[in-house]
């Protein structure tokens, strides 16, 4: 069950999109709460988030979308993902982690508002579960996705970025890769690791980011 109160928080990297969505929700008599522009903004306000969180699928930071959706769900808020779905596996993973709906911006604004209002009224999109081939921990997901991402971050740089040792990074890389090898999925280099993470929906691939013109 969502947190008490039916207000909708919006987290979007574009202030224009964020304000337009909040204004449209208010015009449709849907209660709104926080308007934020990054995952970090949300994390610093965890005590104040409301029952529903509309989140931009392409927030560019150190936390993969699948973990964002998982975290929002664990906080007893209801995640709603907003973003063009260039990669079905990412949407499947978001639904498995607790997303109530995935709304594409190409829809008219009033249609997006209608679907958000439907979630507030209790709608949940029912989709077939897509269990990953490797069940990774939160830290394994984060480190493997950052390591295999389009930026090709080194283990040393990744450790400094996350405030952990290089050895800890290698430990999580080793354990995560071992889980894929147990599932007979090749992950011998960054490219094959990225392919595996994209197929399981943990990682949004470089092609999807390019299609969004986000980098």
From TrEMBL:
GO biological-process terms attached to the record: regulation of DNA-templated transcription
GO terms, molecular function: DNA binding
Top-level taxon of origin: Bacteria
Entry-linked InterPro entries: Sig_transdc_resp-reg_C-effctor, WH-like_DNA-bd_sf
Protein name per Swiss-Prot or TrEMBL: Response regulator transcription factor
Protein's organism: Flexivirga aerilata
């Amino acid at each position: 069950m969502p947190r008490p109160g039916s207000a909708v928080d919006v987290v979007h990297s574009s202030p224009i999109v964020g304000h337009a969505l909040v204004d449209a929700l208010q015009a449709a008599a849907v209660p709104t709460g926080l308007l934020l522009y990054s995952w970090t903004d949300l994390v610093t306000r965890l005590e104040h988030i409301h029952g529903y969180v509309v989140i931009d699928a392409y927030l560019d930071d150190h936390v993969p979308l699948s973990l964002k959706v998982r975290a929002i769900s664990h906080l007893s808020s209801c995640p709603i993902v907003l973003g063009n779905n260039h990669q079905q596996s990412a949407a499947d993973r978001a639904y498995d982690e607790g997303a109530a709906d995935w709304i594409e911006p190409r829809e008219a604004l009033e249609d997006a508002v209608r679907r958000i209002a439907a979630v507030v009224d209790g709608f949940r999109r029912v989709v077939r579960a897509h269990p990953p081939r490797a069940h990774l921990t939160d830290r394994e997901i984060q480190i493997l996705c950052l390591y295999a991402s389009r930026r090709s971050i080194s283990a040393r740089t990744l450790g400094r970025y996350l405030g952990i040792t290089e050895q800890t990074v290698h430990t999580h890389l080793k354990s995560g890769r071992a889980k894929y090898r147990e599932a007979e999925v090749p992950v011998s280099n960054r490219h094959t690791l990225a392919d595996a993470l994209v197929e399981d929906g943990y990682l949004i691939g470089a092609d999807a980011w390019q299609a969004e013109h986000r980098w």
